[in-house]
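Thread: "does anyone have the structure for this chain?"

Original post by V.I.:
We have the sequence but no experimental structure in hand. Need at least a predicted one for the grant figures.
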Amino acid sequence: MDASRVKDRQVGYTPSFGIEEYLVDRFQRSILFWDILRKRGNNYLAHLDAGQPPILIFDYEMIIDGRHFAKPVNYAMVRIVDRRRTGTVAVSDGERRTTRKGELIDRDGLPARPILIIDPRAGHGPGIGGSKLDSQIGIALEFGHPVYFVLFYPDPEEDQTLADVHQAEIKFLEKIVELHPAAPRPAVIGNCQAGWAAALIGADRPDLTGPLIFNGSPLSYWGGTEGRHPMRFRGGLYGGIWLTSFSCDIGNGKFDGAHLVAGFEDLNPANTFWSKYYHLFSHVDTEEKRFLDFERWWGGFYRMNSEEIHFIIDRLFIGNQLEQGKLRFEDGRLIDMKNIRSPVFAFASEGDNITPPPQALNWIKKVYGTVEEIKRCGQIIIYMVHQKVGHLGIFVSGSVARKEHQQIIGNMGWLEYLQPGLYEMVIDEEPSNPKQEDWRVRFVERNMEDILKLDDTLADEQAFVQVNKVSRFNDAVYSLFLRPWIQLAVDEPTADLIRQLHPLRMQRYLVSDMSPWSAPVKMMAEQVKMNRYQAAADNPFVAMEKIFSETLKSGFDLFRDLRDQSQEFFFRSLYDNPMAAIFLGEMKPERRGAQLEGDGGTEREREKARLRDLAEKGGFVEACIRVMAAVAGRDKIMDVREFQVAEQIIQSHEKLKVLTPGEFKLIAREQANLLAVVPQQAIRALRMMGLSREERLELLRIAETIAKADGKALGKKEKKILASLEQVLQKEDTVQAHRDDSA
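Reply from O.Q.:
Generated one for you, tokens below.
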């Protein structure tokens, strides 16, 4: 502390150590803190009066409103009208449209592929994916994509089902395809719960979707590691789906989203009851806008019909039917994720305690079993795991948007050019030019063991099979004996009263201008702002306050850890023991991958035979694309710079530039399948494709250019593939000519 300030604070010879300024500062912060909470309550009420519109900061226009469908739903699709057009190069009508960063560009020189963003309907309203400039919508606009957004309204339509919502989202995509007939199929970004909704669309209508991007999306609901992911045990401890049925009955057939939000808050009591508010209190002069903006979304509680939430909890979260390939809609349609044909990108985080990496990624192992099966299906799956960001940070954090989402969207055009297989997207920690944020991006080939390392074991899922049985039994008992009486007692006014008495609503409207005691807070806050006096940062009492806050937070964390450990212990005591197997019957979770390994052999052999026959067909174009793909992927790492060099070669080479992007993509996909399934045959067959001496020399030059594209010295694998190509592609005179050219 500054000595002069200590002297000023002294009274006689007794030092005060700054207690006067601390008490004044603390009193003023208290007034400002409660005034911000008053504003939060007012914002909550104003948001209700306005019909709880989405919190998007971007202008949009309505494209299609699901409330007017023959089977109405409370969903709609809008188009973001703010499409930025900076730094583009127009393409004349007479010029063949080409690609930039792998994406087809339109007449204005902008990416032609539309992007559809779907926010989660998990208790809150829509808009978190576009609540700030540094967001998914903002990044997509910066790249120039046409951006569409799916929004939904607070109350579901009468008799609305999840199958109706699914059909509505399919109609939205059909409309986008109609509006952009010459563009590639739209990419679909699903945040959290919207990720499995996007997966349902991709599996049901693979003809409508381009790349599917799942951000923090649960698809493998029983996954998790011991001692770290307690949320998955709640369903078993509460007895299963019956509690959801009860919540719908006291809501007169509607499920209150505030229950879901309360469940999220319960995961971290320290933040819910203390840290969030203390952070506002200690930064009351600077945090008001951020706090109020977030709370406007966090406090916007939306509702679902009983059938919708029952389908989600019973068939997805407790039944886990999606990854098992057993999920059916009411009309009998079976949803199988192996039907997805477009590239899939899954973004997870180690810091996410709502959708941890095992729940976001284990479906890959469950659905396909092996990487060989992924390749046989011609599928491309990419994943990325952040090391620390929390669940909401995946969609809300500006730093994540500027780095991870910028690279996902910016490199989306390359995904369809990868060879079939499993990849991890790796972004260098530091960009080569911080001002340009030009991170180096690589797609590194992975195997199933890399996915399983993110989980401790799959054996603990046996207990969840028993939970599923208990859940359905309890729900049947509840429906038979209790539901009729509760439905008889609860009408709409009673249900609305119950909703208004929810603690998350009460804490908002009780601290608002509705409450008479808020008037003096407002008046005092105005005076405080005019006479604000802040304590010095080195004030010892400020330091003591922070120590007290950390101590209290540690106490909450200790309570949380003990609670979570005890819940996991009780869960395993109830369901993961021999007695449960005796009473409920022993049943192991289905392993679709294991079945595929045993039953898919004949189909795999037929596919290999087809590709072997195809390997010798084609001419220079097919051979060139095959060579570029083989060299780029030889070290199991696909560097984006290799893609960029390949794109330059394609757009400048006389025989390649005549291809339309669509034609090139079809050939590239077929050649990638060849290299993935029959790699040695694909290389040996080059000599049988009837290439001239000049064409073979050209292929060797292109191969060397691609090998050097990443700016590094050639590795052993790259040297080996170049040597193999030299051996295959020509007789001795051509090889010698190529060596002379290189020298």
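V.I.: this helps a lot. The chain has a mean pLDDT of 87.
O.Q.: and The first strand starts at residue 60 and ends at 65.
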